[in-house]
Specification:
- By secondary structure, this protein is mostly helical.
- Helix content is about 85%, strand content about 0%.
- It contains eight helices and no strands.
- Helix 2 packs antiparallel against helix 3.
- The radius of gyration is 18 Å and the shape is globular.
- It starts with a helix and ends with a helix.
- The model has no long low-confidence stretch (mean pLDDT about 90).
């Protein structure tokens, strides 16, 4: 529903060229996010659902976050180089780099899989609806001309940041005890998530 509401606002305010730039930027950021996620949210939610002790849950959380940091550092350079080589529009390049940076941060903060694993679906839905509503209001207020490309981009990306902060606040007590994780556990998490990554990227590329 929210994309249908924001679409006429963005196309009218940014124009076809501006909206096209925004769409390309967000599409590339979405592909980057798929590689960072690597199917980890699905496999992690299943693990969280099967655990009862806070210590086990906290350990899984930090293993997943370390895995995402490793994936971000691995895929960031190829995406940055590819963008610099293929795209020659400086505004579009800068927008993509900004979107990739925000996507990396949002992927770490927005641990909705943690709440879903605990079957706290109402809380997840409430956070998503609240953040999307705020995002829509900000678009209406601040995006009005074709020059507002960066403003629209920041507002679009802010959804994940705000939602991530709210989710992190909701689970803070359960993950406040940082558990050490070695690379062996990280690679086990990546191995468990790989089938979901293949499925996800296949669906998106199709």
């Amino acid at each position: 529903m929210f994309p249908l509401l924001s679409l006429p606002i963005l196309t009218r305010s940014l124009g076809l060229e501006g909206y096209g730039k925004l769409a390309i930027t967000l599409a590339i950021a979405n592909i980057f996010s798929i590689f960072i996620d690597f199917g980890l949210p699905v496999s992690a939610a299943r693990q969280i659902a099967s655990k009862n002790l806070n210590e086990d849950i906290s350990r899984i959380y930090w293993q997943i976050q370390l895995s995402k940091l490793l994936l971000t550092s691995t895929f960031a350079i190829p995406f940055i180089l590819g963008t610099a080589i293929i795209i020659d529009n400086s505004d579009l390049q800068n927008g993509i780099f900004l979107a990739m940076l925000c996507s990396s941060l949002n992927n770490i903060l927005f641990s909705n899989w943690f709440l879903e694993g605990q079957q706290r679906f109402v809380l997840v839905s409430s956070i998503l609806i609240f953040c999307k509503t705020i995002q829509l209001i900000l678009l209406i207020i601040f995006v009005s001309t074709p020059n507002d490309y960066y403003t629209a981009l920041i507002i679009e990306l802010s959804f994940g940041t705000i939602a991530g902060i709210l989710v992190s606040s909701a689970i803070y007590k359960e993950i406040s005890s940082i558990k050490k994780s070695d690379l062996k556990n990280v690679f086990i998490q990546l191995k468990n998530a790989y089938p979901f990554f293949v499925m996800n990227i296949t669906i998106n590329l199709y």
